[in-house]
Amino acid sequence: MISNLKYDIEFRREKALELSSQVEQLMAAGGRFSRSEPAQINPPPAERSTKIDPGTVLKRKPKALTAADRKALRLMADSL
Hints:
By secondary structure, the protein is mostly helical. The protein has a domain at 1-32. 52% of the residues lie in helices and 0% in strands.
């Protein structure tokens, strides 16, 4: 079976050889590699603040009218 990645590998071979030669030049010039911790793929989410802004409490949506309130409003409107 022919792999779909075969063409991708051939496509990237030139870049890989160039990178390999650059690494060899770096090592020949006295360069060094150092290992570090891998980067996190999914960093933890930011922590939520425990502070409650008093202004947000006042901006909340008021409760909807109940059926009884709507009926009372209709009666008041009809009486006008």
